[in-house]
Amino acid sequence: MGSQVSVDKGSVHVVIVGGGFGGITAASQLQAWNVPFLLVDMKDSFHHNVAALRASVESVLHRDLHSPGFARKTFISYSATFKDNFRQGLVVGIDLKNQKVLLQDGEALPFSHLILATGSNGPFPGKFNQVSSQQSAIQAYENMVKQVQRSQFIVVVGGGSAGVEMAAEIKTEYPEKEVTLIHSQVFLADKELLPSVRQEVKQILLRKGVQLLLGERVSNLEELPLSEYQECLKVQTDKGTEVAANLVILCNGIKINSSAYHSVFAENGLASNGALRVNEYLQVEGYSNIYAIGDCADVKEPKMAYHAGLHANIAVTNIINSLKQRPLKAYKPGALTFLLSMGRNDGVGQISGFYVGWLMVRLIKSRDLFVSTSWKTMRQSPP
């Protein structure tokens, strides 16, 4: 990390918008450098959403009556780590001229440097993006566990990485339940993955007993209650297939969360998906003091927590280098590393472009889904 940097406290103040994986990494590094900063997020706790799907199906209470639910391990207090350098609030705009971040409650936060780490939005339970307290967020996942436990017939809509992991988590925890995964494409998981990885994903799901409906799109999705137990639901596809279900879980439709900055960069600073155009130093095009990291940066690579952390390293390094009048560091996407956890004891993926099987993925990711890494980043002990 290096020593602390000497800065003029009156003239340097970094504001980080968004407390996801990129945001907490950037905040932790600025804290270590003793650079004044403020982290802003609508929630009061970091959400380790890599483990959100398991938190939706696995109750530790189900295994050990004296342990808290698994969801409790996936929310980590911001203020316990960052103290007065954290502000809970919803960012509604940015005043570029006066260098201020605007909050919904009317407060304006001044910045000398800005790191946009707003992440992406998507359906619950894969994402949890709403103003909330730690306890209400945990409760939402514990309620979801109950919906899964009540349901015998479960339909997962979407066969990207979230969908295949969700289906595998349910069948691992509750092998007696009937799980059907419906995907509009013929091939499962993300298109950037090796064909051998995508084929193994399919084989793992079939071995676990997941029913696959591939190349079919759910046609009555808007009429279906999501993530909520019902006695009898009918899920219909564009090919005329009908599946009876008690529970429908949506695992697609992830979108860049651009609401904080869309209005000020809309003319030429945004890619078609709402991500911010950045240069090789991850600076938003046309602004040397504004950086975009994680999902909201228009970088040609999959949107992953791992990449957000790498982006944060570059952004903080470049802020420090700019203060010390040193050359900036460029971000270079590397060969793809992507691990799919298919339940606690299974998985598949690739590291630096090479196939890795279940044993390696289980050791690296599947057992705790990197939960302990986030607690370490936040310098707190898990419950």
Topology:
Layout: E1 14-17, H1 21-33, E2 37-41, E3 45-47, H2 52-57, H3 60-63, E4 75-77, H4 78-82, E5 86-88, E6 91-95, E7 100-103, E8 108-110, E9 113-116, E10 120-121, H5 134-150, E11 153-157, H6 161-173, E12 178-183, H7 195-208, E13 211-214, E14 233-236, E15 242-245, E16 247-250, E17 255-256, H8 262-265, E18 290-292, H9 305-323, E19 338-341, E20 347-351, E21 354-356, H10 358-366, H11 371-377
Parallel strand pairs: 1-2, 1-9, 2-5, 9-18, 11-12, 11-16, 12-13
Antiparallel strand pairs: 3-4, 6-7, 7-8, 10-17, 14-15, 19-20, 20-21
Helix pairs in contact: 1-9, 6-7
- Radius of gyration (CA) equals 21 Å
Mean pLDDT over the full residue set: 93
Could you say which overall geometry the principal axes of the C-alpha atoms support? globular
Major sheet: 5 strands, parallel
- Please provide the count of β strands: 21
Tally of DSSP helical segments: 11
Low-pLDDT parts are 61-67
Strand content: 15-25%
Q: What structural class is derived from the secondary structure elements?
A: alpha/beta
The first-to-last residue Cα distance is 28 Å
| Fraction of residues in helix | 25-40%
**Adjacency order of strands in the biggest sheet:** 5-2-1-9-18
